[in-house]
């Protein structure tokens, strides 16, 4: 009885969490986003729902810069057997394995959409994780996953140039053939990610496809902006380390006239070696010994 009492307390605690729910439609189909104290240690977390397909999107940013001359963004798309109502038996490995090909492609779809909107100088680790909690077999999680990730980033204190929105369009005929399958993502003024597969389609039909997708994207971005105005956090102010202007200019002057030729006749590593030797000839730069990655 003690265990039952504890479980009831946990349920009651969840029900009393401060929650905020936002509802809109995706091509006339109801979707919703819920923000609560769930995943409280994340910078932001959003539960997205489309039909009975439910996802949890969390965003976390590190407090210190990581070493390396790149932006350490990680996007994980985590599928769960229980999301489809499957509880595997003992003959299956019960540990989490590597992601499926579909999960990898879905993660890349989100990554390609959100990555260009970060400042390329950011060196703090950012992790976006989308977990599929429930899949109803009807509503593809990709769209609600991207929208939930975007909403979480937008309301968080992580510096980011979103929100974005993505929509999926299929042209399914009565004989169940699929001339095309398309996914469009972007902001109010532009589309920054397109994934399209299918047979040849008339140009006018493609134009209609783009216009239809972008109008829905614009509406969904406006919807997210409304959420940000209501509950969004102030973005962290990060001081970026800028490279020495003299070094940048010297590298640019040396590399620019040689780069096109190097792409055809020699490797970039050889060009990098030449650049390092060139800088070492200058006493000022030899003392700095800059690390250069053209």
From TrEMBL:
UniProtKB keywords: Coiled coil, RNA-binding, Transferase
Molecular functions (GO terms): 3'-5'-RNA exonuclease activity; polyribonucleotide nucleotidyltransferase activity; RNA binding
Coiled coil segments of this chain: 261-288
Span of domain Exoribonuclease phosphorolytic: 30-159
One GO cellular component term: cytosol
GO annotation terms (biological process): mRNA catabolic process
Top-level lineage group: Bacteria
InterPro entries (UniProt xref): ExoRNase_PH_dom1, ExoRNase_PH_dom2_sf, PNPase, PNPase/RNase_PH_dom_sf, Ribosomal_Su5_D2-typ_SF
Protein name as catalogued: Polyribonucleotide nucleotidyltransferase
Protein species of origin: Candidatus Jorgensenbacteria bacterium GW2011_GWA2_45_13
